[in-house]
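Repro:
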Amino acid sequence: MTVAHLSDLHLGYGAGTAGRTSDAARVFEEALARIAGIGPRLVVIAGDVFDHPDVTAPPIATFTRAIHKLRERVPDVVVAVVAGVRDTPLDPSHQGPLAVVGALQSVEAATVASRRLVLLDGDLSVTLVPHHAARRAPPPKLAPDRAAKWNVLVLHGVPATAGPGARGSQPGRARRSAAPSPRAGSALPVPLTGWDYVALGSRHTRAQIAERAHYCGSLERIGPDPWEEAAVDKGFLTAHLESGEVSFEPVEARAAVSLAPVDATDGGTATAARRLGEALAGVPGGIDGKLLRVPVRGLGPDAMAALDREVLARVRRRVAELRIDALPGPAPAGKAAAAKGAAGSRAGRSP
């Protein structure tokens, strides 16, 4: 019995930035095509399917189209979805966009309250806990179904308990780490033992926090600082309930490049332009189509505006996203040379 686990799709991400919106759609469709080749009976999506509860029609159409293609190849598949923070309207009387996709054939959604699905003639029990149910007081009492052969828990949130023995990531396997530090009032007291698999969502990097409890992470580099995840592989997980084996299946997310600071304190715009050109030329594979962050030190507002007109405007046309970080003052003593030498090595950090 195989389960595919996705989360934090954020369909509709980057509204107003067409390339980033299409990135989220593209990797989701790629992931479902890969999942169709694997042929699991159950696909779980642990929240934040959409980037906003007031999602427009195109992201819903993307989800619908991908599910339809999955069903064509795996007719008996069940897709179980829980609402995340981004899928949940502020007014709890509104169910949000998952009420729409939950009406699709083969899709079962939990939008506000917890649900339990009984599948495969009672052999498989799937407990769905959306964001709203995880945050309400008192929290839901969760326990495996003793009558079922296999029990799967799908939760958008942070469990308050985690098993010991977390360790660092391993190539080709799900990354293990210490349990995320729960914020006050945000952790759900749920035992993580007794389940054949616990599919978690709400964080964008994958992690294993107990023997069979995993965050799979987001499919794309999203959020306010995608460069933090420049060296993190993106994808989904497959769990084999009989053996407990969990495998990571990568997808091709947008590459992110973060340059070392370009120091222009001793020469102004011309120096910044020259040093930036040198740094960009040293990026392995070039910058085209990538997410690019350029920290610039020592330029005032007028000089930064001139740099943008004369150099950065051309760079912006080549990349998927460009962020310029204006750093004040000169580089700390002893670090300028190190930063300059690190430009080439840090620029190439991409999946």
